[in-house]
Amino acid sequence: MLFHVKMTVNLPVDMNPERAASLKADEKALAQRLQHEGKWRHLWRIAGHYANYSVFDVDSVQELHDLLMQLPLYPYMAIEVNALCRHPSSIREDDR
Ligand SMILES: O=C(O)CC1=CCC(=O)O1
């Protein structure tokens, strides 16, 4: 199942810089692991924003939910999720 996810990061302005750097490093490590595993298919910065558009490939809505809640930056993100399905005019064979 494919899901388009928008994540907008809102770190508190008074957050300790070392704490912020640690959260970002942990987020990066998990994001890269999930990309290697094929769960996090796309990760794009939205130009001009501290936000990203991502595509997740998971087995269930519950898996997506659990995965998003594990993200170290989850407490500081606004997350929007949209389920994706095949477009009848798509010529791509690899996105099911
Ligand atoms: O910077 C972001 O958009 C938040 C984020 C998601 C994965 C990651 O490494 O950073």
TrEMBL record:
Pathway: Aromatic compound metabolism; beta-ketoadipate pathway; 5-oxo-4,5-dihydro-2-furylacetate from catechol: step 3/3. Keywords: Aromatic hydrocarbons catabolism, Isomerase. Residues 1-89 form the Muconolactone isomerase domain. Its EC number is 5.3.3.4. It holds the Pfam family MIase. GO terms for biological process: beta-ketoadipate pathway. Gene3D superfamilies: Dimeric alpha+beta barrel. InterPro entries: Dimeric_a/b-barrel (IPR011008), MLI_dom (IPR026029), Muconolactone_d_Isoase (IPR003464). It catalyses: (S)-muconolactone = (4,5-dihydro-5-oxofuran-2-yl)-acetate. It is an enzyme of class 5 (isomerase). GO terms for molecular function: muconolactone delta-isomerase activity. The keyword Signal does not apply. The keyword DNA-binding does not apply. Homodecamer. Belongs to the muconolactone Delta-isomerase family. This is Muconolactone Delta-isomerase. It comes from Pseudomonas fluorescens. The lineage of its organism: Bacteria, Pseudomonadati, Pseudomonadota, Gammaproteobacteria, Pseudomonadales. The gene is catC.
